Amino acid sequence: MDKPREECGVLGLWSESPLDVAGLLHLGLLALQHRGQEAAGIAVSDGQTFLVEKDLGLVNQVFTEERLQKLRLPEARLGIAHTRYSTTGSNLRFNAQPLTARTAHGVLGIAHNGNFTNAKPLRDRLLQEGATFQSTSDTEVMLLLLARLAHLSLPEAAAEAMRLLEGGYSVLLMNRKILLALRDPHGVRPLVLGKAPWGYAFASEPPALELLGATYLRDVRPGEVVWVEEGELKSLQVLPPAPSPCAFEWIYFARPDSLLDGTEAYAARVRMGEELFREAPAEADLVVPVPDSGIGAAVGYARASGLPLEFGLYKNPYAGRTFIQPTQELRDLKTRLKLSPTGAVKGKRVVLIDDSIVRGTTSRRIVRMLKEAGALEVHFRVSSPPIRFPCYYGIDTAARKELIAAEKSVEEIRAYIGADSLAFLSEEGVRRAIGRPVCLACFNGRYPAGVPEEGEKLALELF
Ligand code: SF4
């Protein structure tokens, strides 16, 4: 549906007493499925044995009952899990996480959301020193750095690795006994800590904690490493925090019921819609969201404007994933399979609300669909600014040349998608709605956590 894509979700738990770690992590992963649909994996340990199962596919495709059974250690106490989306060409089984390595710290498992922007020079240095890599993922650079820091305890080694690595990342790390959570000093990617009757849990988003039976305690602080060792929760502020969390988590990625860094995603989306009305009102009869991504902002726009909110588009919940089709006609049918207009738009002037426009191709099809269904006018309102730059911190926004706003003015985009008017929410409007300083680099090109040396996104695919 031509949306930016989150690249990963992470989840981990540590329990005082034996627990069905694999079963709980499987449940929690289902709550993070929206953060990655191409691979899933779980690692568990009982203090002696360390097991990992991972593969390409959705969580429920990878974790059949038979596969979960292989992970069910009777005395299991800790584990981490991962769900992944990857850039084109790198959706390979050996990149599925958790990645593992046998090191002086014992067997290490790592699950990572985000990107290390200096992974390539670090990888080159490690190669010169004789290291070998099993994957093409930047995550393995951290794993090999940890292996080299054999003279330090695992939490000290994790802190030292944080001092060496740059970029936007949230990482879960485990050996047979200790579970660690790390967040970059800008806190670009989310990571939350929860408390359960049996111990502690970490997750990309709070709804996953709830499925583990844990309640949200707090966010892992930017620049902090938190670990659970022999039942004790410990923390070290490794780097000074300079918070700049990803605005897109609130605009689109995070589940609407997620509370991130103190701001609920749904409430922020509603406020974005209210801000959007203040900045760009339209003469119209009703407000229609592009489901599901535009719903929160449409509620806000309708509330602020006093216009009725109508579901003018039906989203087929059973459409599933379809693959890119070569002809224009088939691409149109693909959109039609997922979305179709309802009678609500006939003879009406419609304000159509979506959270973002990436390439503009789907937006164009939706506008045409509404007009064919009898909408008199379609005024397109977008609850984020135009995306002009790629993301280097774990989001696939498409290459710069594919971003319609990198090449075209707002008026040119309006003409391309065939809307009667078009407006985007300002950066200031996004900041006000979220209520905190945030990363807006894909809108303004100001990257808080650096960019990779070679600039382009696939530089992060290391081989
Ligand atoms: S560049 Fe955009 S998508 Fe990437 S972290 Fe910043 S706000 Fe999020």
TrEMBL record:
<dbReference type="InterPro" id="IPR029057">
    <property type="entry name" value="PRTase-like"/>
</dbReference>
<comment type="similarity">
    <text>In the C-terminal section; belongs to the purine/pyrimidine phosphoribosyltransferase family.</text>
</comment>
<keyword id="KW-0411">Iron-sulfur</keyword>
<keyword id="KW-0808">Transferase</keyword>
<dbReference type="GO" id="GO:0004044">
    <property type="term" value="F:amidophosphoribosyltransferase activity"/>
</dbReference>
<dbReference type="InterPro" id="IPR035584">
    <property type="entry name" value="PurF_N"/>
</dbReference>
<feature type="binding site">
    <location>
        <position position="439"/>
    </location>
    <ligand>
        <name>[4Fe-4S] cluster</name>
    </ligand>
</feature>
<keyword id="KW-0328">Glycosyltransferase</keyword>
<feature type="binding site">
    <location>
        <position position="293"/>
    </location>
    <ligand>
        <name>Mg(2+)</name>
    </ligand>
</feature>
<feature type="binding site">
    <location>
        <position position="246"/>
    </location>
    <ligand>
        <name>[4Fe-4S] cluster</name>
    </ligand>
</feature>
<dbReference type="InterPro" id="IPR029055">
    <property type="entry name" value="Ntn_hydrolases_N"/>
</dbReference>
<feature type="binding site">
    <location>
        <position position="391"/>
    </location>
    <ligand>
        <name>[4Fe-4S] cluster</name>
    </ligand>
</feature>
<feature type="active site" description="Nucleophile">
    <location>
        <position position="8"/>
    </location>
</feature>
<keyword id="KW-0315">Glutamine amidotransferase</keyword>
<feature type="binding site">
    <location>
        <position position="354"/>
    </location>
    <ligand>
        <name>Mg(2+)</name>
    </ligand>
</feature>
<dbReference type="InterPro" id="IPR000836">
    <property type="entry name" value="PRTase_dom"/>
</dbReference>
<feature type="binding site">
    <location>
        <position position="355"/>
    </location>
    <ligand>
        <name>Mg(2+)</name>
    </ligand>
</feature>
<dbReference type="InterPro" id="IPR017932">
    <property type="entry name" value="GATase_2_dom"/>
</dbReference>
<dbReference type="Pfam" id="PF13537">
    <property type="entry name" value="GATase_7"/>
</dbReference>
<keyword id="KW-0460">Magnesium</keyword>
<comment type="pathway">
    <text>Purine metabolism; IMP biosynthesis via de novo pathway; N(1)-(5-phospho-D-ribosyl)glycinamide from 5-phospho-alpha-D-ribose 1-diphosphate: step 1/2.</text>
</comment>
<feature type="binding site">
    <location>
        <position position="442"/>
    </location>
    <ligand>
        <name>[4Fe-4S] cluster</name>
    </ligand>
</feature>
<keyword id="KW-0479">Metal-binding</keyword>
<protein>
    <recommendedName>
        <fullName>Amidophosphoribosyltransferase</fullName>
        <ecNumber>2.4.2.14</ecNumber>
    </recommendedName>
</protein>
<comment type="function">
    <text>Catalyzes the formation of phosphoribosylamine from phosphoribosylpyrophosphate (PRPP) and glutamine.</text>
</comment>
<keyword id="KW-0408">Iron</keyword>
<keyword id="KW-0658">Purine biosynthesis</keyword>
<dbReference type="InterPro" id="IPR005854">
    <property type="entry name" value="PurF"/>
</dbReference>
<dbReference type="Pfam" id="PF00156">
    <property type="entry name" value="Pribosyltran"/>
</dbReference>
<keyword id="KW-0004">4Fe-4S</keyword>
<feature type="domain" description="Glutamine amidotransferase type-2">
    <location>
        <begin position="8"/>
        <end position="231"/>
    </location>
</feature>
